[in-house]
Specification:
By secondary structure, the chain is α+β, with helices and mostly antiparallel strands. The chain has a domain of 113 residues: Histidine kinase-like ATPase, C-terminal domain (Heat Shock Protein 90). 30% of the residues lie in helices and 29% in strands. The chain contains four helices and eight strands. The protein has a six-stranded antiparallel sheet with strand order 1-2-3-4-8-7, with helices on one face. The chain has a two-stranded antiparallel ribbon with strand order 5-6. Strand 1 and strand 2 form a beta hairpin. Helix 1 packs antiparallel against helix 2. Bound molecules: adenosine-5'-triphosphate and magnesium ion (MG).
C-alpha cells in the first residue's frame, strides 16, 4: 500500500485524517497509523497493538456509525512524552450505555447472548481491547458527530492493576 492509496482527506507528516466508509478503509486506516507510529518512534510490538486499536475503531464505525473518519496525530505531553492520538468520528447514533458497551461480552444494550455471538458479527470485546491497549480513552457523545478518542504513549504510564 502507498500513501496515495489511503483515502485520506488531509495528510501531513505527523497527522492524517482517514475516511472510513468501506471495509477496505480499515486496512488504509491501519496502514496510515503504522506510518505515523513508526515516525513517532513506537517499537514493533506497540505498533501491532496500535493496529488492533485502529482496526477496532474503524470496524465499529462501519458496523454502527456507517461512515466516519479517523484523525491521527502525534501528541507531545509535558509529563507523558510523545504519543499517538486517534479520534474516530462517525455519523451514527450515540451509545445508549457507555459503561455497558465497554464491558467484554456486551453490546451497548447489555450482555450478548453467547448463542448469538458468532451470528451477530462480533463478541463485544472491541472497546475493551481499545481501552486495554490505550493510555487514555474518552467517549464524546456530541454535539454533532460522536467520537471515540484513544491516546497511546511511547512510554506507557503505569496503569492501576497492570503488571510491572
Ligand atoms: N461507533 C459506534 N456507534 C454506535 N455504537 C457503537 C459504536 N461502537 C461500539 N458501539 C456499541 O458498543 C458495543 C460494544 O462495542 P465493541 O466494539 O466492544 O463490540 P462489538 O463491536 O459488538 O464486537 P467486537 O468488537 O468484539 O467485534 C457495540 O455492540 C455497539 O452496541
Ligand atoms: Mg467492535
Amino acid at each position: 500500500m502507498t500513501a496515495a492509496m489511503v483515502r485520506a482527506v488531509a495528510t501531513r507528516d505527523s497527522e492524517v485524517l482517514v475516511r472510513v466508509a468501506d471495509p477496505i478503509d480499515v486496512f488504509s486506516a491501519r496502514w496510515a497509523a503504522q506510518r505515523i507510529a513508526t515516525a513517532i518512534g513506537f517499537a514493533s510490538a506497540a505498533r501491532q497493538e496500535i493496529a488492533i486499536v485502529v482496526s477496532e475503531l474503524a470496524t465499529n464505525i462501519l458496523k454502527y456509525g456507517v461512515r466516519g473518519d479517523i484523525a491521527m496525530h502525534r501528541v507531545d505531553d509535558a509529563a507523558l512524552g510523545a504519543g499517538l492520538e486517534l479520534i474516530a468520528f462517525d455519523d451514527g447514533p450515540p451509545l445508549t450505555d457507555l459503561a455497558m458497551a465497554i464491558q467484554d461480552g456486551c453490546g451497548d444494550g447489555g450482555p450478548i447472548d453467547p448463542a448469538r455471538q458468532l451470528g451477530r458479527g462480533g463478541i463485544g470485546s472491541g472497546l475493551g481491547a481499545i481501552i486495554r491497549l490505550s493510555d487514555l480513552f474518552e467517549y464524546r457523545p456530541g454535539p454533532g458527530r460522536k467520537a471515540f478518542r484513544a491516546v497511546r504513549f511511547v512510554r506507557r504510564p503505569r496503569r492501576p492493576g497492570a503488571s510491572p
